[in-house]
Design a protein that fits this description.
Blueprint lengths: L1 H42 L7 H4 L9 H11 L4 E10 L2 E11 L13 E13 L2 E9 L1 H8 L13 E9 L4 H15 L5 E10 L5 E9 L2 H18 L3 H7 L3 E7 L6
Antiparallel strand pairs: 1-2, 2-3, 3-4, 5-7, 5-8, 6-7
Length: 263
């Protein structure tokens, strides 16, 4: 009798295990299908109307539609190539490659016309058949290098020219001043030989905004060409930079530097 009970118990446990494995496989396949539709239909075919079916209202990341449209606006031919998909329980991991041509402004980077192909890994978490969380790991450095925003060789060069401006801006002048800074920063990124730029601010004890802008050029020739391009733009626009600084009571200190490389 005892042997019979053991046999029946073993058979029931075996059936339960088989059922659990089958259910687990079914969940994995269902979650994979959600992610497949996300890439194939919503993203690659631009059918963002499907997103509410695939992305939960409880999704805890940035607005998914805005992220996708931000990329497709800047890269109109954008495609996400799925290289591999691994699913386990409520997690799906996608090994992907983003491909596209930079035709519009992306995160303040003006269109470069360059083609990019950037590899990445995205881990999705799903609940009730919808994505509730995602984490993305991409080669950000390589992406910016392909766009030409950063050089392929990120080490300094003795030929690099660094142009540094320091502005002291009264409180009432900041809006107009920063509008002009944005115009100039967007412009210089289009000049051959541009490597990178940056801007830093703080507020001094008198309530003035102190702004330091840094632009790095491949060499002196690139720097001179940039200066001519900016001056030509001012002339075409009818803009008087010294006049604006004087009118807004902005003081400026500027200089041309070279990087001090290790000896």
């Amino acid at each position: 009798m005892k042997s019979l009970l053991y046999l029946v118990s073993a058979m029931l446990l075996s059936q339960m295990t088989i059922a659990q494995v089958a259910n687990k496989k079914e969940v994995n396949m269902q979650n994979k299908e959600v992610i497949r539709r996300l890439y194939d239909e919503a993203m690659n075919k631009r059918n963002t109307a499907l997103l509410p079916e695939l992305i939960s209202a409880a999704y805890d990341g940035p607005d998914f539609k805005q992220v996708v449209t931000g990329l497709t606006d800047a890269f109109p031919d954008a495609q996400w190539i799925v290289k591999d998909v691994v699913a386990e329980g409520n997690k799906v991991v996608v090994f992907q490659q983003f491909q596209g041509t930079h035709r519009g402004t992306f995160q303040h980077i003006p269109a470069t016309g360059r083609r990019v192909a950037s590899d990445g890994v995205v881990a999705y978490e799903l609940k009730d058949g919808k994505v509730i969380h995602s984490e993305t790991l991409t080669n950000r450095l390589g992406f910016l290098q392909e766009l030409g925003v950063l050089p392929r060789d990120i080490n300094g060069s003795p030929d690099n020219v660094i142009f540094i401006d320091k502005f002291i801006v009264p409180a009432g002048a900041t809006k107009e001043f920063f509008e002009r800074v944005k115009i100039n920063r967007d412009l210089i990124k289009t000049v051959p030989g541009f490597i990178r730029d940056a801007a830093y601010t703080y507020t001094d004890s008198d309530g003035n905004t102190v702004c330091v802008t840094v632009a790095v050029w491949a060499n002196k020739a690139a720097f001179e060409q940039a200066r001519e391009t900016v001056q030509a733009s001012y002339k075409k626009e009818g803009f008087d930079m010294p006049g604006m600084l004087k009118r807004l009571n902005i003081t400026i200190d500027r200089g041309v530097y070279r990087e001090m490389l290790p000896q």
